[in-house]
Design brief:
- There is one protein chain.
- This protein has 22 helices and 16 strands.
- With 570 residues, the chain is α/β, with parallel strands linked by helices.
- The strands form five sheets. A five-stranded parallel sheet has the order 7-6-5-11-12. A four-stranded antiparallel sheet has the order 1-2-4-3.
- The model is unreliable at 75-79 and 566-570 (pLDDT under 50).
Protein backbone atom coordinates (compact mmCIF):
# COMPACT_ATOMS: atom_id res chain seq x y z
CA UNK A 1 0.00 0.00 0.00
CA UNK A 2 1.00 3.65 -0.13
CA UNK A 3 1.61 3.69 3.64
CA UNK A 4 5.27 2.76 3.08
CA UNK A 5 5.81 5.81 0.89
CA UNK A 6 3.80 8.02 3.23
CA UNK A 7 5.96 7.04 6.19
CA UNK A 8 9.26 7.50 4.35
CA UNK A 9 8.10 10.87 2.98
CA UNK A 10 6.94 12.06 6.40
CA UNK A 11 10.29 11.01 7.83
CA UNK A 12 12.04 13.18 5.25
CA UNK A 13 9.78 16.15 6.04
CA UNK A 14 10.42 15.79 9.77
CA UNK A 15 14.17 15.48 9.24
CA UNK A 16 14.12 18.66 7.17
CA UNK A 17 12.18 20.53 9.88
CA UNK A 18 14.67 19.33 12.49
CA UNK A 19 17.53 20.46 10.27
CA UNK A 20 15.82 23.84 9.76
CA UNK A 21 15.48 24.22 13.52
CA UNK A 22 11.67 24.03 13.55
CA UNK A 23 11.49 20.77 15.52
CA UNK A 24 13.46 18.95 18.15
CA UNK A 25 14.29 15.27 17.62
CA UNK A 26 11.85 14.03 20.30
CA UNK A 27 9.04 16.22 18.93
CA UNK A 28 9.63 14.83 15.46
CA UNK A 29 9.21 11.24 16.64
CA UNK A 30 5.88 12.12 18.28
CA UNK A 31 4.59 13.82 15.13
CA UNK A 32 5.32 11.02 12.70
CA UNK A 33 2.13 8.98 13.12
CA UNK A 34 -0.05 12.10 13.04
CA UNK A 35 1.47 13.26 9.75
CA UNK A 36 1.26 9.79 8.19
CA UNK A 37 -2.51 9.82 8.85
CA UNK A 38 -2.81 13.25 7.19
CA UNK A 39 -0.75 12.71 4.03
CA UNK A 40 -2.82 11.59 1.05
CA UNK A 41 -2.38 10.05 -2.39
CA UNK A 42 -3.27 12.65 -4.99
CA UNK A 43 -6.41 12.31 -7.07
CA UNK A 44 -5.80 10.84 -10.51
CA UNK A 45 -7.48 13.62 -12.50
CA UNK A 46 -7.66 13.63 -16.29
CA UNK A 47 -4.85 16.21 -16.33
CA UNK A 48 -2.50 14.22 -14.10
CA UNK A 49 0.82 13.33 -15.74
CA UNK A 50 3.28 10.62 -14.73
CA UNK A 51 5.89 13.31 -14.07
CA UNK A 52 3.78 14.93 -11.34
CA UNK A 53 3.99 14.32 -7.58
CA UNK A 54 1.95 11.47 -6.15
CA UNK A 55 1.54 12.38 -2.47
CA UNK A 56 0.37 15.59 -0.81
CA UNK A 57 -0.05 17.06 2.65
CA UNK A 58 -1.94 20.27 3.33
CA UNK A 59 0.49 22.91 4.55
CA UNK A 60 -2.01 24.20 7.13
CA UNK A 61 -2.18 20.68 8.64
CA UNK A 62 1.54 20.84 9.30
CA UNK A 63 1.20 24.39 10.64
CA UNK A 64 -1.46 23.21 13.11
CA UNK A 65 0.97 20.65 14.49
CA UNK A 66 4.25 22.61 14.50
CA UNK A 67 3.22 26.27 14.15
CA UNK A 68 3.54 28.72 11.26
CA UNK A 69 7.24 29.33 11.86
CA UNK A 70 8.40 26.54 9.55
CA UNK A 71 7.25 28.50 6.47
CA UNK A 72 9.70 31.30 7.26
CA UNK A 73 12.52 28.88 6.52
CA UNK A 74 11.19 28.30 3.01
CA UNK A 75 12.24 31.09 0.64
CA UNK A 76 9.86 30.37 -2.28
CA UNK A 77 7.40 27.84 -3.62
CA UNK A 78 10.07 25.53 -5.04
CA UNK A 79 12.47 25.33 -2.09
CA UNK A 80 13.42 21.74 -1.27
CA UNK A 81 12.28 20.35 2.10
CA UNK A 82 14.45 17.24 2.04
CA UNK A 83 17.96 16.14 1.19
CA UNK A 84 16.71 13.86 -1.59
CA UNK A 85 15.03 16.67 -3.58
CA UNK A 86 11.61 15.06 -3.89
CA UNK A 87 9.58 16.92 -1.25
CA UNK A 88 8.42 20.43 -2.17
CA UNK A 89 6.23 23.24 -0.91
CA UNK A 90 3.73 23.92 -3.70
CA UNK A 91 1.25 26.70 -2.82
CA UNK A 92 -1.07 25.28 -0.12
CA UNK A 93 0.40 21.77 -0.23
CA UNK A 94 3.57 19.91 0.52
CA UNK A 95 3.98 17.63 -2.51
CA UNK A 96 6.03 14.43 -2.70
CA UNK A 97 7.38 13.07 -5.99
CA UNK A 98 8.23 9.36 -6.04
CA UNK A 99 9.94 7.09 -8.53
CA UNK A 100 7.08 5.85 -10.74
CA UNK A 101 8.54 2.40 -11.27
CA UNK A 102 9.11 1.77 -7.57
CA UNK A 103 5.71 3.26 -6.65
CA UNK A 104 3.78 1.19 -9.22
CA UNK A 105 5.59 -2.03 -8.38
CA UNK A 106 4.97 -1.59 -4.65
CA UNK A 107 1.27 -0.73 -5.05
CA UNK A 108 0.49 -3.56 -7.49
CA UNK A 109 2.35 -6.08 -5.36
CA UNK A 110 0.37 -5.05 -2.28
CA UNK A 111 -2.94 -5.24 -4.13
CA UNK A 112 -2.16 -8.76 -5.35
CA UNK A 113 -1.05 -9.92 -1.91
CA UNK A 114 -3.97 -8.35 -0.04
CA UNK A 115 -6.66 -9.47 -2.49
CA UNK A 116 -10.19 -8.55 -1.35
CA UNK A 117 -8.83 -7.09 1.91
CA UNK A 118 -6.83 -4.39 0.09
CA UNK A 119 -7.54 -0.98 1.56
CA UNK A 120 -9.12 -2.31 4.74
CA UNK A 121 -6.18 -2.21 7.10
CA UNK A 122 -7.42 -1.70 10.65
CA UNK A 123 -7.63 1.98 11.46
CA UNK A 124 -7.49 1.65 15.24
CA UNK A 125 -5.14 -0.10 17.65
CA UNK A 126 -7.82 -2.55 18.74
CA UNK A 127 -11.22 -3.57 17.34
CA UNK A 128 -14.40 -2.10 18.78
CA UNK A 129 -17.84 -3.59 19.26
CA UNK A 130 -20.25 -1.54 17.17
CA UNK A 131 -24.03 -1.89 17.06
CA UNK A 132 -25.76 -0.59 13.92
CA UNK A 133 -29.56 -0.37 13.92
CA UNK A 134 -31.01 -0.08 10.44
CA UNK A 135 -34.07 -0.84 8.29
CA UNK A 136 -36.54 -1.13 11.23
CA UNK A 137 -39.89 -1.27 9.37
CA UNK A 138 -43.28 -1.24 11.09
CA UNK A 139 -45.78 -4.03 11.59
CA UNK A 140 -48.48 -4.52 8.93
CA UNK A 141 -46.86 -2.06 6.52
CA UNK A 142 -45.20 -3.46 3.38
CA UNK A 143 -41.54 -2.63 3.03
CA UNK A 144 -41.96 1.04 2.22
CA UNK A 145 -39.62 2.94 -0.07
CA UNK A 146 -38.86 5.14 2.93
CA UNK A 147 -37.09 2.19 4.56
CA UNK A 148 -34.92 1.68 1.49
CA UNK A 149 -32.29 4.23 2.45
CA UNK A 150 -32.00 3.06 6.05
CA UNK A 151 -31.58 -0.54 4.89
CA UNK A 152 -28.98 0.18 2.22
CA UNK A 153 -26.92 2.79 4.09
CA UNK A 154 -27.00 0.84 7.36
CA UNK A 155 -25.89 -2.35 5.65
CA UNK A 156 -22.92 -0.63 3.96
CA UNK A 157 -21.84 1.05 7.22
CA UNK A 158 -21.98 -2.34 8.97
CA UNK A 159 -19.97 -3.88 6.11
CA UNK A 160 -17.36 -1.13 6.40
CA UNK A 161 -16.87 -1.59 10.13
CA UNK A 162 -16.68 -5.36 9.66
CA UNK A 163 -14.13 -5.13 6.83
CA UNK A 164 -11.92 -2.99 9.10
CA UNK A 165 -11.86 -5.73 11.72
CA UNK A 166 -14.48 -4.49 14.16
CA UNK A 167 -17.07 -6.67 15.86
CA UNK A 168 -20.41 -5.60 14.35
CA UNK A 169 -23.91 -6.28 15.62
CA UNK A 170 -26.43 -5.70 12.81
CA UNK A 171 -29.78 -5.01 14.42
CA UNK A 172 -33.25 -4.74 12.89
CA UNK A 173 -35.78 -3.16 15.28
CA UNK A 174 -39.33 -4.00 14.21
CA UNK A 175 -42.00 -1.45 15.18
CA UNK A 176 -44.70 -3.80 16.43
CA UNK A 177 -46.07 -1.84 19.41
CA UNK A 178 -47.72 1.44 20.23
CA UNK A 179 -50.83 3.41 19.33
CA UNK A 180 -50.45 2.67 15.62
CA UNK A 181 -50.99 -1.03 16.33
CA UNK A 182 -54.07 -0.14 18.38
CA UNK A 183 -55.46 1.78 15.41
CA UNK A 184 -54.63 -1.12 13.09
CA UNK A 185 -56.48 -3.51 15.39
CA UNK A 186 -59.48 -1.16 15.40
CA UNK A 187 -59.28 -0.97 11.61
CA UNK A 188 -59.15 -4.72 11.24
CA UNK A 189 -62.25 -5.12 13.41
CA UNK A 190 -63.99 -2.65 11.07
CA UNK A 191 -62.54 -3.48 7.64
CA UNK A 192 -60.43 -6.63 7.92
CA UNK A 193 -61.13 -10.19 6.77
CA UNK A 194 -59.22 -13.18 8.13
CA UNK A 195 -59.91 -14.98 4.85
CA UNK A 196 -57.82 -12.41 2.95
CA UNK A 197 -54.89 -13.00 5.33
CA UNK A 198 -54.75 -16.56 3.98
CA UNK A 199 -54.63 -15.45 0.36
CA UNK A 200 -51.66 -14.62 -1.89
CA UNK A 201 -50.87 -11.15 -0.56
CA UNK A 202 -51.83 -10.79 3.14
CA UNK A 203 -49.56 -7.75 3.60
CA UNK A 204 -51.46 -5.83 0.97
CA UNK A 205 -54.73 -6.45 2.85
CA UNK A 206 -53.18 -5.31 6.15
CA UNK A 207 -51.90 -2.18 4.47
CA UNK A 208 -55.32 -1.42 2.99
CA UNK A 209 -56.79 -1.70 6.49
CA UNK A 210 -54.01 0.53 7.89
CA UNK A 211 -54.68 3.21 5.28
CA UNK A 212 -58.46 3.17 5.75
CA UNK A 213 -58.37 3.47 9.55
CA UNK A 214 -55.84 6.31 9.38
CA UNK A 215 -58.11 8.06 6.89
CA UNK A 216 -60.96 7.70 9.37
CA UNK A 217 -59.04 9.60 12.06
CA UNK A 218 -57.92 12.34 9.69
CA UNK A 219 -60.67 12.67 7.07
CA UNK A 220 -62.04 16.21 6.72
CA UNK A 221 -65.57 14.98 6.09
CA UNK A 222 -65.69 13.08 9.39
CA UNK A 223 -66.96 14.83 12.52
CA UNK A 224 -64.47 15.53 15.30
CA UNK A 225 -66.53 13.33 17.61
CA UNK A 226 -66.26 10.30 15.30
CA UNK A 227 -62.52 10.90 14.76
CA UNK A 228 -61.97 11.08 18.50
CA UNK A 229 -64.05 7.96 19.05
CA UNK A 230 -62.02 5.98 16.48
CA UNK A 231 -58.73 7.19 17.95
CA UNK A 232 -59.95 6.41 21.48
CA UNK A 233 -60.79 2.87 20.36
CA UNK A 234 -57.23 2.47 19.07
CA UNK A 235 -55.80 3.70 22.38
CA UNK A 236 -58.03 1.28 24.27
CA UNK A 237 -57.00 -1.69 22.14
CA UNK A 238 -53.31 -0.85 22.66
CA UNK A 239 -53.92 -0.61 26.40
CA UNK A 240 -55.51 -4.07 26.26
CA UNK A 241 -52.48 -5.36 24.36
CA UNK A 242 -50.11 -4.07 27.05
CA UNK A 243 -52.32 -5.75 29.65
CA UNK A 244 -52.18 -9.07 27.78
CA UNK A 245 -55.75 -9.37 26.48
CA UNK A 246 -55.80 -12.82 24.72
CA UNK A 247 -57.82 -11.73 21.68
CA UNK A 248 -55.69 -8.65 20.96
CA UNK A 249 -52.44 -10.53 21.63
CA UNK A 250 -53.49 -13.23 19.13
CA UNK A 251 -54.27 -10.57 16.51
CA UNK A 252 -50.93 -8.87 17.16
CA UNK A 253 -49.04 -12.18 16.77
CA UNK A 254 -50.78 -12.84 13.46
CA UNK A 255 -49.94 -9.38 12.07
CA UNK A 256 -46.33 -9.61 13.24
CA UNK A 257 -45.79 -13.07 11.72
CA UNK A 258 -47.12 -11.95 8.34
CA UNK A 259 -44.97 -8.81 8.41
CA UNK A 260 -41.72 -10.57 9.32
CA UNK A 261 -42.19 -13.30 6.72
CA UNK A 262 -42.82 -10.73 3.99
CA UNK A 263 -39.89 -8.54 5.03
CA UNK A 264 -37.51 -11.50 5.16
CA UNK A 265 -38.30 -12.27 1.50
CA UNK A 266 -37.22 -8.74 0.57
CA UNK A 267 -34.08 -8.86 2.73
CA UNK A 268 -33.03 -12.10 1.07
CA UNK A 269 -33.55 -10.60 -2.36
CA UNK A 270 -31.53 -7.50 -1.46
CA UNK A 271 -28.74 -9.51 0.15
CA UNK A 272 -29.33 -7.88 3.55
CA UNK A 273 -28.48 -9.77 6.74
CA UNK A 274 -28.90 -9.06 10.45
CA UNK A 275 -27.18 -10.40 13.53
CA UNK A 276 -30.24 -9.69 15.67
CA UNK A 277 -33.89 -8.88 15.07
CA UNK A 278 -35.54 -7.20 18.05
CA UNK A 279 -39.04 -5.80 18.44
CA UNK A 280 -40.53 -2.91 20.39
CA UNK A 281 -42.79 -5.42 22.12
CA UNK A 282 -39.73 -6.91 23.84
CA UNK A 283 -39.65 -3.82 26.03
CA UNK A 284 -43.22 -3.77 27.29
CA UNK A 285 -42.15 -4.99 30.73
CA UNK A 286 -38.68 -3.41 30.65
CA UNK A 287 -40.20 0.06 30.20
CA UNK A 288 -41.84 -0.35 33.61
CA UNK A 289 -38.43 -1.05 35.15
CA UNK A 290 -36.97 2.04 33.47
CA UNK A 291 -39.86 4.19 34.74
CA UNK A 292 -39.29 2.94 38.30
CA UNK A 293 -35.56 3.68 37.98
CA UNK A 294 -36.20 7.22 36.71
CA UNK A 295 -38.71 7.86 39.51
CA UNK A 296 -36.28 6.54 42.12
CA UNK A 297 -33.49 8.79 40.79
CA UNK A 298 -35.83 11.80 40.78
CA UNK A 299 -35.50 12.26 37.01
CA UNK A 300 -39.09 11.60 35.97
CA UNK A 301 -41.76 14.24 36.55
CA UNK A 302 -45.54 14.17 36.00
CA UNK A 303 -47.69 17.01 34.77
CA UNK A 304 -51.30 17.76 35.80
CA UNK A 305 -52.63 15.32 33.16
CA UNK A 306 -50.50 12.48 34.50
CA UNK A 307 -48.01 12.47 31.59
CA UNK A 308 -44.52 11.41 32.67
CA UNK A 309 -41.61 13.44 31.24
CA UNK A 310 -37.99 14.51 31.70
CA UNK A 311 -36.55 17.95 30.99
CA UNK A 312 -33.82 17.59 28.35
CA UNK A 313 -32.13 19.78 25.76
CA UNK A 314 -33.51 19.38 22.23
CA UNK A 315 -34.26 21.71 19.32
CA UNK A 316 -31.87 24.19 20.95
CA UNK A 317 -33.79 24.58 24.19
CA UNK A 318 -34.78 22.82 27.39
CA UNK A 319 -38.08 20.99 26.97
CA UNK A 320 -40.14 18.01 28.16
CA UNK A 321 -39.31 14.59 26.70
CA UNK A 322 -42.50 12.58 27.21
CA UNK A 323 -41.96 9.00 28.37
CA UNK A 324 -45.30 7.85 29.83
CA UNK A 325 -48.84 8.55 28.61
CA UNK A 326 -51.53 9.74 31.01
CA UNK A 327 -53.08 6.25 30.97
CA UNK A 328 -49.74 4.73 32.02
CA UNK A 329 -48.87 3.15 28.65
CA UNK A 330 -45.43 3.50 27.07
CA UNK A 331 -44.32 5.77 24.26
CA UNK A 332 -41.85 5.21 21.40
CA UNK A 333 -39.22 7.24 23.27
CA UNK A 334 -39.54 5.22 26.48
CA UNK A 335 -39.27 1.98 24.49
CA UNK A 336 -36.18 3.32 22.71
CA UNK A 337 -34.62 4.25 26.07
CA UNK A 338 -35.33 0.76 27.40
CA UNK A 339 -33.89 -0.82 24.25
CA UNK A 340 -30.69 1.25 24.48
CA UNK A 341 -30.15 0.29 28.14
CA UNK A 342 -30.88 -3.38 27.40
CA UNK A 343 -28.57 -3.46 24.37
CA UNK A 344 -25.65 -2.08 26.35
CA UNK A 345 -26.21 -4.66 29.07
CA UNK A 346 -26.30 -7.42 26.45
CA UNK A 347 -23.48 -6.41 24.14
CA UNK A 348 -21.27 -3.90 26.02
CA UNK A 349 -20.74 -2.08 22.73
CA UNK A 350 -18.31 0.81 22.29
CA UNK A 351 -20.65 2.74 20.02
CA UNK A 352 -24.15 2.48 18.58
CA UNK A 353 -25.51 4.03 15.39
CA UNK A 354 -29.16 4.56 14.50
CA UNK A 355 -29.50 4.85 10.71
CA UNK A 356 -32.72 6.85 10.48
CA UNK A 357 -33.86 9.70 8.19
CA UNK A 358 -33.20 13.27 9.26
CA UNK A 359 -36.86 13.97 10.08
CA UNK A 360 -36.33 12.04 13.34
CA UNK A 361 -33.61 14.39 14.61
CA UNK A 362 -35.71 15.74 17.49
CA UNK A 363 -36.48 12.20 18.70
CA UNK A 364 -32.79 11.32 18.88
CA UNK A 365 -31.91 14.59 20.59
CA UNK A 366 -34.42 13.62 23.28
CA UNK A 367 -33.16 10.05 23.44
CA UNK A 368 -29.55 11.18 23.90
CA UNK A 369 -30.65 13.77 26.47
CA UNK A 370 -32.47 11.14 28.54
CA UNK A 371 -29.60 8.63 28.35
CA UNK A 372 -27.06 11.27 29.40
CA UNK A 373 -29.13 12.19 32.46
CA UNK A 374 -29.26 8.47 33.23
CA UNK A 375 -25.44 8.48 32.93
CA UNK A 376 -25.35 5.60 30.48
CA UNK A 377 -21.56 5.22 29.95
CA UNK A 378 -21.44 4.75 26.16
CA UNK A 379 -23.34 7.98 25.38
CA UNK A 380 -21.45 10.46 27.57
CA UNK A 381 -18.74 11.22 25.01
CA UNK A 382 -20.90 10.87 21.90
CA UNK A 383 -22.40 13.69 19.85
CA UNK A 384 -25.72 13.56 17.98
CA UNK A 385 -24.03 13.12 14.59
CA UNK A 386 -22.14 10.08 15.82
CA UNK A 387 -25.27 8.38 17.16
CA UNK A 388 -28.01 9.41 14.70
CA UNK A 389 -26.77 8.66 11.17
CA UNK A 390 -29.11 10.90 9.21
CA UNK A 391 -30.08 10.77 5.57
CA UNK A 392 -32.33 12.69 3.20
CA UNK A 393 -35.39 11.59 1.27
CA UNK A 394 -36.01 10.12 -2.17
CA UNK A 395 -37.98 12.40 -4.47
CA UNK A 396 -39.96 11.53 -7.59
CA UNK A 397 -40.06 7.77 -7.18
CA UNK A 398 -42.61 6.22 -9.54
CA UNK A 399 -43.20 3.32 -11.94
CA UNK A 400 -45.12 3.08 -15.19
CA UNK A 401 -48.19 2.42 -13.07
CA UNK A 402 -47.83 5.70 -11.21
CA UNK A 403 -46.80 6.61 -7.68
CA UNK A 404 -45.04 3.83 -5.79
CA UNK A 405 -45.13 3.00 -2.11
CA UNK A 406 -43.81 -0.53 -1.88
CA UNK A 407 -40.14 -1.39 -2.30
CA UNK A 408 -41.02 -4.69 -3.96
CA UNK A 409 -42.73 -2.73 -6.75
CA UNK A 410 -39.57 -0.70 -7.27
CA UNK A 411 -37.37 -3.81 -7.38
CA UNK A 412 -39.78 -5.63 -9.70
CA UNK A 413 -39.91 -2.65 -12.05
CA UNK A 414 -36.11 -2.40 -12.13
CA UNK A 415 -35.96 -6.08 -13.01
CA UNK A 416 -38.58 -5.80 -15.78
CA UNK A 417 -36.82 -2.79 -17.33
CA UNK A 418 -33.49 -4.65 -17.30
CA UNK A 419 -35.08 -7.72 -18.92
CA UNK A 420 -36.38 -5.51 -21.73
CA UNK A 421 -32.97 -3.84 -22.17
CA UNK A 422 -31.00 -7.11 -22.18
CA UNK A 423 -33.34 -8.70 -24.71
CA UNK A 424 -32.95 -5.70 -27.01
CA UNK A 425 -29.13 -5.54 -26.74
CA UNK A 426 -27.27 -7.39 -29.48
CA UNK A 427 -24.29 -7.92 -27.16
CA UNK A 428 -26.30 -10.03 -24.66
CA UNK A 429 -24.85 -13.55 -24.72
CA UNK A 430 -27.07 -16.52 -25.47
CA UNK A 431 -27.68 -18.90 -22.61
CA UNK A 432 -27.61 -16.41 -19.73
CA UNK A 433 -30.37 -16.51 -17.14
CA UNK A 434 -31.95 -13.22 -18.18
CA UNK A 435 -34.40 -13.03 -15.26
CA UNK A 436 -31.77 -13.74 -12.60
CA UNK A 437 -29.20 -11.41 -14.16
CA UNK A 438 -31.80 -8.67 -14.60
CA UNK A 439 -32.85 -8.95 -10.96
CA UNK A 440 -29.24 -8.58 -9.78
CA UNK A 441 -28.56 -5.68 -12.13
CA UNK A 442 -31.75 -3.93 -11.04
CA UNK A 443 -30.96 -4.30 -7.35
CA UNK A 444 -27.34 -3.16 -7.90
CA UNK A 445 -28.63 -0.09 -9.69
CA UNK A 446 -31.07 0.81 -6.91
CA UNK A 447 -28.32 0.44 -4.29
CA UNK A 448 -25.69 2.42 -6.22
CA UNK A 449 -28.08 5.28 -7.05
CA UNK A 450 -28.93 5.55 -3.37
CA UNK A 451 -25.27 5.63 -2.28
CA UNK A 452 -23.69 7.81 -4.97
CA UNK A 453 -24.19 11.16 -3.17
CA UNK A 454 -23.84 12.40 0.40
CA UNK A 455 -26.45 10.62 2.51
CA UNK A 456 -27.84 13.84 4.03
CA UNK A 457 -28.96 15.06 0.61
CA UNK A 458 -32.39 14.42 -0.84
CA UNK A 459 -32.10 12.93 -4.30
CA UNK A 460 -34.38 12.60 -7.30
CA UNK A 461 -35.10 9.07 -8.36
CA UNK A 462 -34.44 8.55 -12.07
CA UNK A 463 -34.99 5.28 -13.93
CA UNK A 464 -32.97 6.54 -16.92
CA UNK A 465 -29.89 7.43 -14.86
CA UNK A 466 -30.19 4.38 -12.64
CA UNK A 467 -30.29 1.83 -15.47
CA UNK A 468 -27.88 3.54 -17.87
CA UNK A 469 -25.03 1.31 -19.10
CA UNK A 470 -22.79 4.28 -19.97
CA UNK A 471 -23.27 6.80 -17.15
CA UNK A 472 -22.29 6.49 -13.48
CA UNK A 473 -24.69 3.78 -12.33
CA UNK A 474 -24.79 0.32 -10.81
CA UNK A 475 -25.26 -1.18 -14.27
CA UNK A 476 -22.16 0.67 -15.49
CA UNK A 477 -20.07 -0.74 -12.63
CA UNK A 478 -21.37 -4.27 -13.25
CA UNK A 479 -20.66 -3.86 -16.97
CA UNK A 480 -17.05 -2.81 -16.33
CA UNK A 481 -16.51 -5.69 -13.93
CA UNK A 482 -17.98 -8.20 -16.39
CA UNK A 483 -15.78 -6.79 -19.16
CA UNK A 484 -12.63 -7.33 -17.10
CA UNK A 485 -13.69 -10.85 -16.12
CA UNK A 486 -14.27 -11.65 -19.78
CA UNK A 487 -10.85 -10.27 -20.71
CA UNK A 488 -9.20 -12.36 -18.00
CA UNK A 489 -10.94 -15.51 -19.30
CA UNK A 490 -10.21 -14.96 -23.00
CA UNK A 491 -6.97 -12.95 -23.28
CA UNK A 492 -4.72 -16.03 -23.19
CA UNK A 493 -2.45 -14.61 -20.45
CA UNK A 494 -2.36 -15.96 -16.92
CA UNK A 495 -2.36 -13.53 -14.02
CA UNK A 496 1.03 -13.79 -12.30
CA UNK A 497 1.77 -13.29 -8.60
CA UNK A 498 4.15 -10.46 -9.42
CA UNK A 499 4.85 -8.42 -12.53
CA UNK A 500 7.66 -6.03 -13.32
CA UNK A 501 6.34 -2.66 -14.33
CA UNK A 502 9.11 -1.35 -16.56
CA UNK A 503 6.69 -1.31 -19.50
CA UNK A 504 4.05 0.72 -17.64
CA UNK A 505 5.14 4.09 -18.98
CA UNK A 506 1.84 5.25 -20.49
CA UNK A 507 -0.08 8.03 -18.77
CA UNK A 508 -3.19 5.81 -18.73
CA UNK A 509 -1.33 3.16 -16.74
CA UNK A 510 0.15 5.66 -14.29
CA UNK A 511 -3.25 7.25 -13.63
CA UNK A 512 -4.81 3.85 -12.98
CA UNK A 513 -2.07 2.80 -10.53
CA UNK A 514 -2.28 6.15 -8.73
CA UNK A 515 -6.04 5.80 -8.39
CA UNK A 516 -5.74 2.28 -7.00
CA UNK A 517 -3.19 3.58 -4.50
CA UNK A 518 -5.85 6.01 -3.23
CA UNK A 519 -8.26 3.29 -2.11
CA UNK A 520 -7.04 3.01 1.52
CA UNK A 521 -7.41 6.79 1.87
CA UNK A 522 -10.94 6.60 0.44
CA UNK A 523 -11.87 3.79 2.84
CA UNK A 524 -10.59 5.79 5.78
CA UNK A 525 -12.52 8.88 4.69
CA UNK A 526 -15.71 6.85 4.24
CA UNK A 527 -15.28 5.26 7.66
CA UNK A 528 -14.46 8.44 9.56
CA UNK A 529 -17.47 10.23 8.05
CA UNK A 530 -19.71 7.15 7.70
CA UNK A 531 -20.28 8.23 4.09
CA UNK A 532 -20.53 5.32 1.60
CA UNK A 533 -20.62 7.79 -1.31
CA UNK A 534 -16.83 8.21 -1.16
CA UNK A 535 -16.34 4.54 -2.05
CA UNK A 536 -19.01 4.64 -4.77
CA UNK A 537 -17.45 7.73 -6.37
CA UNK A 538 -14.04 6.03 -6.19
CA UNK A 539 -15.49 3.02 -8.04
CA UNK A 540 -16.97 5.23 -10.76
CA UNK A 541 -13.57 6.84 -11.36
CA UNK A 542 -11.88 3.42 -11.28
CA UNK A 543 -14.32 2.12 -13.91
CA UNK A 544 -13.68 5.13 -16.19
CA UNK A 545 -9.88 4.81 -15.85
CA UNK A 546 -10.14 1.08 -16.47
CA UNK A 547 -12.12 1.65 -19.65
CA UNK A 548 -9.49 4.14 -20.86
CA UNK A 549 -6.71 1.67 -20.07
CA UNK A 550 -8.71 -1.10 -21.75
CA UNK A 551 -8.64 0.92 -24.97
CA UNK A 552 -5.03 2.13 -24.80
CA UNK A 553 -3.32 -0.86 -23.19
CA UNK A 554 -4.67 -3.96 -24.95
CA UNK A 555 -3.67 -7.38 -23.63
CA UNK A 556 -5.13 -9.79 -26.13
CA UNK A 557 -2.96 -10.18 -29.23
CA UNK A 558 0.11 -8.53 -27.66
CA UNK A 559 3.57 -10.08 -27.27
CA UNK A 560 3.60 -12.08 -24.02
CA UNK A 561 6.20 -9.78 -22.37
CA UNK A 562 4.02 -6.74 -23.02
CA UNK A 563 0.76 -8.50 -22.19
CA UNK A 564 2.10 -9.76 -18.87
CA UNK A 565 4.20 -6.57 -18.28
CA UNK A 566 7.30 -8.75 -17.93
CA UNK A 567 8.30 -11.19 -15.23
CA UNK A 568 9.28 -9.95 -11.79
CA UNK A 569 11.90 -10.99 -9.27
CA UNK A 570 9.45 -10.18 -6.46
Amino acid sequence: MATYFKRTSVHKIIQSLIRLGQLGFKDGRKLEDSLVSLIRVREASKMFKASERQLELRADSLSTLVGEGWKESVVNDKVNLSDTENVYLDKDFIRVQLDNREFSQHILKNIQQAGPSYGYERLESSPETVLVEYSSPNIAKPFHAGHLRSTIIGNVIANLYEALGHNVIRLNFLGDWGTQFGLLAAGFKKYGQFKKLEERDPMLHLFEVYVRINQDVSAEDESDMRKKATYAEGLELFRKLEQGDPEIVSLWKTFRKITMEENNKMYERLGIKFTETHTESMYNDKVKDIVKRLEKEGLLKYNESGVGYMDVMFAGRLGPAKLVKSDGTSLYLSRDVSAAVDRYERFKFDRMHYVVEMGQRSHFEQLIGVLRLMKEPWILERELGDVHIQFGRIEGMSTRKGEVIFLRDIVDEAKSRMIKTLKEKQTTRDGIEVEEVSDRLGISSIIVQDLKDRRIRNYKFSWDRMLNFKSDSGVFLQYCHARLCSMQRTCGVDLQDGAAVDSLVEEEAQQLVLHMARYPDVVQKAWVNLEPCYIVQYLFRLAHLTNVAYSHLPVKGQHSDVAQVGQSDL
